[in-house]
Amino acid sequence: MKISQFLAPALLGLLLMAHSVPVPAQPPHDGDETVRQGSGDAGLDRAVAEVERRTGGRVLSARRVERDGRSAYRIKLLTRDGHVRVIWQDAAGR
After folding, report:
1. Residue span of the signal peptide, if any (predicted)?
2. Closest Cα to residue 91, out of 44, 37, 32, 36?
């Protein structure tokens, strides 16, 4: 028996087994990030839309924070090339 004759059914079996294993639910958010879902903060919503438009990426989370004594938006972004970046925008002018 050739090794390839054995490997194909074995790999298929492993794939089928892995597909049937239940995936645990994601743990609750640890509070470090605030996921933006209808934040109610129009300035934050505009900042998120602007960052998405400007970068072409997808915002993962966004929140208003105090930074160096000023109000700012901390926006975590997944770029088009798969990198995660944090972008800071001043919230005072929004």
Report:
1. 1-25
2. 44
